[in-house]
């Protein structure tokens, strides 16, 4: 490890001995980058602020790394290439009514006699595959879920999931707004939803484009608001049926949302809102606070899926607006009949009954809480710098977060200017997640696949299916989570397959060009093995793409 | 010399002896001899972790506790003898009928439940509670390793080398869990068909090139070399000629296939003494159902998977224990959406070798409000570490100092009586 790092840094090593001079401000990165020289800083920023270099990137970024960082912090000023926008099929979820998609799902599932359990699972939540008692049927249900779906339901799901996968993966591979794509990944994980919980299957693209993407480089409070309003989150964490405690039979007339489910309080979203999304696990709330917050959030639900019950007539029609307004998410509905109108006692404060405003107040309070600043600071430091981030760095980021009202760009700027980010020990220290690795290998090869299914399958086989994390805490990005023998075998296999694909293509493999383009990301050991295997260009390319220089960022 | 058996039954028989034979692609490896086990068979432990707080009150049901029916009107299971009623275990408890595949183990006294057990830490965070259960240090987040990794080191003994530790411990699935984190090397067994399908990178010239590339002493290099070595051995043991490349992570629907394969692997390779199986999908906050429904369907798939594991272990089952736990239980009272929320005490169970089975162990604290933890959850009367300690002391014959290494900071230990 030490040897590799010394060689990777090469001539830059001395220059990168930046010491502990406490320089702050915009000149910091410029100083760091210009003193370093060579491709090292370029490789470092491309690997951390993006998904790794494509051919030509190291040269471009190397001319002025700090200017590149500045440009990444202002993504709206970087136009997307026509070749990329031409392949995105985002009209499925942008300017679209998510409840219409859910109604279509429910209606097809109800008609489909082959999967009666799926119909029930949509009302009650649950994974279709796991509901089948017969293992053969379970396998069939699971196989039908993403790929060669022959059933009408499978086709509908695929029609929604595939564009969502394409949108994320094509943008990550080809967008010049690399930092924005990294932040979309970061925030999706932070506010994770699982795409295979019943009708969430047709909502994930909408969720990403309405609740995550518009605010990924914006303001934390907006992310919090948008995710709290989105039907997918309200469904995934069960808040949609959470209601003031009430006795009585299932009713459709004057009672609940009208889908036959008994009304009562559900704490799931309230707990995760505090534990995972904002304050963090240790910080200053009790079980009682969870219950009280759940009471405050009763009524935060979605426009009813089934329209025939009386109460559904009271709900507004879905207003389809473009993304960008955190409190204006199509499909959100505050149902006053579900809302607990009593007074609450939360985080040491008395909360008077004020209907939907109680939830807004809760989000304001949580976003402004110092524990949230520390929690987000920690997660950013861990994602961008090291698995066990320096507490001083975390404190600094928390301070900026608070001072800048949760604006993400200033926090990122402080991070990229920090000593910790540029420390020699930090360069190349983060082990890539399967997501990062697969994308970086494709980018290094200069390849964007015609369709994303193979890439999506690869991510699933490595234990990191995109949109497929079942638990709300999202995927980890640490070495401990991902470095294991099976994972390494799979990465090597992926690189080998990719290289074979190239060697069979018209242009063949130019290993020398690849090695030259990747500069410090090809270690001396890799160069030696490439030499030894010249007669087999496909193997040589695989060695580069899955070599030690490509495993870390 | 008798012909080498090629039937599976014949191979399984041979696996029990101390022979080292290579014929074709099948290799039966010799158990690493250690003086401790020279005259007795190598004990084995498989830990199954149910992630998401499995509702134990719906599995081992206290039908005779009157509070059960008051508190769970929509999701309680009927009493023994009633339609869809629980299968009677004793005067207090009945088994969810979906768990019928494991009833023979109970009747053979090879299955013991421990109710009202768990971790004393009060956290209701899944992630913290799993962390504590896997590090076996409730309340302490600074423990760097997992208890199964510490156990692997203890079992390997002072003269251990990477070669001698190869395939001592196997993790099922793509993510290395906390319980296995630490210095001891852990092999991975993939879920799905990837486990038994030779991939491109398994071809000798490719595998060899990468082994040369990753020649160093750093963790990355050692992991790659370990992968190549164990992959070859696992493939040799389990090679199938199924060409489909369905590569998936662990799922409950496919669990029986994955546990069957793990059992088969352990039956064929005597070096494996520790294994870990994670199973998710237990966090039933809404509409969990009663005797029929979401949760019972899951129990059915779990029971089949555990039975498949035991069956495929074959004769190895006589030396193996399977321990099943979940990070905490769920609320005694159902919630407003016909599910349950995070709780405290839960049921755990132990199967296999020398188990004092056919019993529900532990003191049952009862479900009246006065007996509950924080007025909402089943209390805990048996610490999960006491369950582990029984197995380590009585099956693995660990000395007190070794127990303290695997389960540090345990101030008081109480024997549960799980091993006969």
List strands and helices in order, with pairings.
The complex is a heterodimer of chains A (553) and B (420).
Chain A: H1 2-9, H2 12-15, H3 27-36, H4 40-48, H5 57-63, H6 65-72, H7 82-87, H8 98-111, H9 116-124, H10 128-131, H11 135-143, H12 152-174, H13 178-190, H14 204-212, H15 220-229, H16 231-236, H17 268-277, H18 287-296, E1 300-302, E2 332-334, E3 344-346, E4 349-351, H19 356-368, H20 370-384, H21 391-403, H22 408-416, H23 419-422, H24 434-444, H25 453-461, H26 479-482, H27 485-504, H28 511-518, H29 524-532, H30 537-545, H31 548-551
Antiparallel strand pairs in A: 1-2, 3-4
Chain B: H1 8-15, E1 21-23, E2 26-28, E3 44-50, E4 60-61, H2 66-71, E5 87-88, E6 94-95, H3 103-107, E7 111-118, H4 126-135, H5 147-156, H6 162-165, E8 169-172, E9 187-189, H7 204-213, H8 219-238, H9 255-268, E10 274-279, H10 294-313, E11 320-326, E12 346-352, E13 359-361, E14 382-383, H11 384-394, H12 400-406
Parallel strand pairs in B: 3-10, 3-11, 7-13, 7-14, 8-9, 8-10
Antiparallel strand pairs in B: 1-2, 4-6, 5-6, 7-12, 11-12
Q: Give the helix level of chain B as a range of percent.
A: 25-40%
Poorly predicted residue ranges of chain B: 1-39, 240-249
Report the span from N to C terminus of chain B.
Answer: 40 Å
Query: What value does the Rg of chain B take, in angstroms?
Result: 22 Å
Question: Residue-averaged pLDDT of chain B, rounded?
Answer: 85
Structure characterization notes:
- The complex is a heterodimer of chains A (553) and B (420).
- The relative contact order of chain A is 0.11.
- In chain A, the strands form 2 sheets. A two-stranded antiparallel ribbon of chain A has the order 1-2. In chain A, strands 3-4 form a two-stranded antiparallel ribbon.
- Helix content of chain A is 54%, strand content 2%.
- Chain A is globular.
- Chain A has helices spanning 2-9, 12-15, 27-36, 40-48, 57-63, 65-72, 82-87, 98-111, 116-124, 128-131, 135-143, 152-174, 178-190, 204-212, 220-229, 231-236, 268-277, 287-296, 356-368, 370-384, 391-403, 408-416, 419-422, 434-444, 453-461, 479-482, 485-504, 511-518, 524-532, 537-545, 548-551; strands spanning 300-302, 332-334, 344-346, 349-351.
- Chain A is built from 31 helices and 4 strands.
- The longest helix of chain A is centred in the first third of the chain and has 23 residues, at 152-174.
- Chain A is mainly alpha-helical and 553 residues long.
- Chain A folds into 3 domains: 78-218, no CATH class; 220-368, no CATH class; 434-551, no CATH class.
- Chain B has 420 residues and is α/β, with parallel strands linked by helices.
- Chain B folds into 2 domains: 45-191 and 250-379, Alkaline Phosphatase, subunit A; 198-239.
- Chain B has helices spanning 8-15, 66-71, 103-107, 126-135, 147-156, 162-165, 204-213, 219-238, 255-268, 294-313, 384-394, 400-406, and strands spanning 21-23, 26-28, 44-50, 60-61, 87-88, 94-95, 111-118, 169-172, 187-189, 274-279, 320-326, 346-352, 359-361, 382-383.
- In chain B, helix 7 packs antiparallel against helix 8 and helix 9 runs parallel beside helix 10 (294-313).
- The longest helix of chain B is centred in the middle third of the chain and has 20 residues, at 219-238.
- Residues 1-39 and 240-249 of chain B have low confidence and may be disordered.
- The chains are: A mainly alpha (553), B alpha/beta (420).
- Chains A and B meet through helix 9, helix 10, helix 11, helix 17 and helix 25 of A and helix 4, strand 9, helix 7, helix 8 and helix 10 of B.
């Amino acid at each position: 490890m030490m040897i590799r790092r010394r060689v990777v840094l090469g001539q830059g090593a001395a220059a990168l001995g930046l010491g502990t001079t406490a320089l702050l401000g915009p000149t910091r990165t410029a100083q760091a980058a210009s003193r370093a020289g060579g491709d090292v800083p370029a490789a470092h920023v491309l690997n951390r602020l993006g998904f790794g270099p494509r051919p030509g990137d190291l040269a471009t970024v190397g001319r002025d790394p700090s200017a590149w960082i500045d440009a990444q912090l202002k993504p709206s000023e970087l136009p997307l290439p026509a070749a990329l926008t031409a392949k995105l099929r985002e009209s499925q979820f942008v300017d679209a009514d998510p409840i219409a998609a859910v109604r279509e799902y429910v209606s097809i599932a109800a008609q489909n006699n082959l999967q009666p359990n799926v119909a029930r699972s949509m009302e009650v939540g649950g994974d279709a595959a796991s509901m089948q008692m017969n293992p053969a049927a379970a396998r069939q249900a699971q196989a039908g879920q993403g790929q060669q779906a022959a059933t009408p339901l499978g086709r509908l799901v695929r029609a929604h999931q595939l564009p969502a996968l394409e949108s994320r993966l094509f943008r990550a591979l080809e967008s010049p707004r690399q930092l924005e794509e990294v932040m979309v990944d970061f925030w999706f994980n932070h506010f994770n939803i699982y795409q295979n919980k019943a009708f969430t299957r047709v909502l994930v693209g909408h969720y990403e484009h309405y609740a995550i993407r518009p605010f990924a480089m914006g303001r934390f409070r907006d992310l919090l608001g948008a995710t709290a309003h989105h039907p997918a989150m309200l469904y995934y964490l069960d808040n949609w049926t959470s209601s003031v405690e009430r006795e009585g039979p299932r009713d459709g007339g004057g009672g609940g949302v009208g889908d036959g489910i008994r009304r009562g309080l559900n704490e799931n979203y309230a707990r995760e809102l505090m534990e995972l999304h904002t304050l963090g696990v240790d910080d200053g709330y009790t079980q009682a606070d969870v219950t009280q917050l759940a009471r405050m959030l009763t009524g935060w639900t979605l426009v009813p899926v089934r329209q025939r019950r009386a109460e559904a007539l009271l709900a507004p029609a879905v207003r389809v607006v473009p993304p960008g307004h955190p409190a204006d998410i199509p499909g959100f509905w505050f149902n006053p009949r579900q809302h607990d109108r009593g007074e609450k006692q939360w985080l040491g404060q008395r909360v008077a009954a004020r209907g939907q405003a109680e939830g807004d107040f809760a989000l304001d309070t949580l976003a402004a809480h110092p524990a949230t600043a520390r929690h987000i600071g920690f997660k950013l430091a861990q994602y961008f710098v090291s698995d066990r981030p320096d507490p001083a760095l975390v404190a600094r980021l928390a301070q900026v977060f608070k001072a800048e009202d949760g604006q993400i760009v200033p926090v990122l700027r402080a991070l990229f200017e920090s000593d910790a980010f540029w420390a020699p020990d930090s360069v190349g220290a983060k082990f890539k997640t399967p997501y990062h690795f697969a994308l970086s290998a494709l980018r290094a090869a200069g390849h964007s696949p015609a369709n994303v299914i193979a890439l999506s399958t690869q991510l699933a086989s490595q234990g990191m299916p995109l949109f497929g994390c079942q638990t709300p805490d999202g995927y980890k990005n640490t070495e401990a989570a991902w470095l294991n023998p099976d994972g390494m075998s799979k990465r090597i296999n992926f690189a080998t397959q990719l290289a074979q694909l190239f060697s069979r293509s018209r242009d063949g493999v130019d290993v020398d060009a690849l090695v030259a383009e990747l500069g410090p990301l090809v270690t001396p050991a890799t160069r030696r093995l490439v030499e030894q295997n010249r007669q087999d260009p496909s193997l040589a390319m695989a060695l580069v793409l899955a070599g030690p220089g490509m495993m870390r960022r | 010399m008798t012909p080498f058996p090629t039937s599976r039954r014949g191979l399984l028989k041979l696996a029990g002896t101390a022979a080292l034979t290579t014929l074709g692609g099948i290799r039966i490896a010799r158990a690493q001899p250690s003086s401790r086990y020279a005259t007795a068979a190598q004990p084995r432990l498989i830990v199954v972790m149910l992630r998401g707080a499995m509702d134990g009150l719906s599995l081992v049901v206290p039908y005779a506790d009157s509070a059960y029916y008051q508190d769970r009107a929509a999701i309680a299971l009927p009493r023994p003898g009633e339609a869809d009623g629980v299968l009677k275990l004793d005067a207090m408890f009945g088994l969810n009928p979906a768990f019928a595949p494991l009833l023979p183990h109970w009747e053979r006294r090879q299955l013991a439940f421990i109710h009202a057990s768990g971790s004393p830490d009060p956290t209701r965070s899944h992630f913290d509670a799993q962390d504590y259960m896997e590090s076996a240090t409730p309340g302490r987040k600074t423990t760097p390793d997992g208890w199964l990794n510490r156990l692997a080191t203890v079992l390997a003994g002072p003269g251990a080398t990477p070669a001698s530790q190869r395939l001592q411990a196997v993790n099922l699935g793509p993510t290395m869990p906390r319980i296995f984190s630490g210095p001891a090397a852990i092999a991975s067994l993939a879920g799905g068909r990837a486990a038994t399908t030779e991939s491109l990178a398994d071809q000798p010239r490719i595998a060899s090139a990468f082994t040369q590339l990753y020649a160093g002493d750093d963790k990355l290099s050692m992991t790659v070399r370990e992968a190549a070595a164990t992959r070859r051995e696992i493939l040799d043991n389990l090679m199938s000629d199924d060409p489909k490349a369905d590569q998936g992570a662990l799922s409950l629907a496919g669990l029986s296939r994955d546990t069957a394969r793990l059992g088969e692997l352990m039956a064929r390779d005597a070096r494996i003494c520790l294994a870990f199986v994670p199973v998710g999908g237990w966090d039933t906050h809404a509409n969990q159902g009663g005797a029929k429904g979401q949760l019972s369907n899951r129990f059915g798939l779990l029971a089949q998977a555990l039975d498949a594991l035991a069956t495929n272990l074959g004769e190895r089952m006589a030396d193996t224990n399977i321990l099943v736990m979940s990070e905490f239980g769920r609320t005694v009272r159902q919630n407003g959406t016909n599910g349950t929320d995070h709780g405290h005490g839960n049921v755990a169970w132990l199967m296999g070798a020398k188990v004092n089975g056919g019993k529900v162990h532990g003191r049952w604290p009862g479900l009246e409000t006065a007996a509950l933890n924080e007025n909402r959850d089943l209390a805990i009367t048996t610490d999960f570490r006491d369950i582990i300690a029984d197995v380590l002391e009585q099956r693995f014959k660990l000395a007190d100092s070794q127990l303290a290494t695997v389960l540090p900071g345990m101030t008081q230990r109480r024997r549960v009586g799980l091993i006969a």
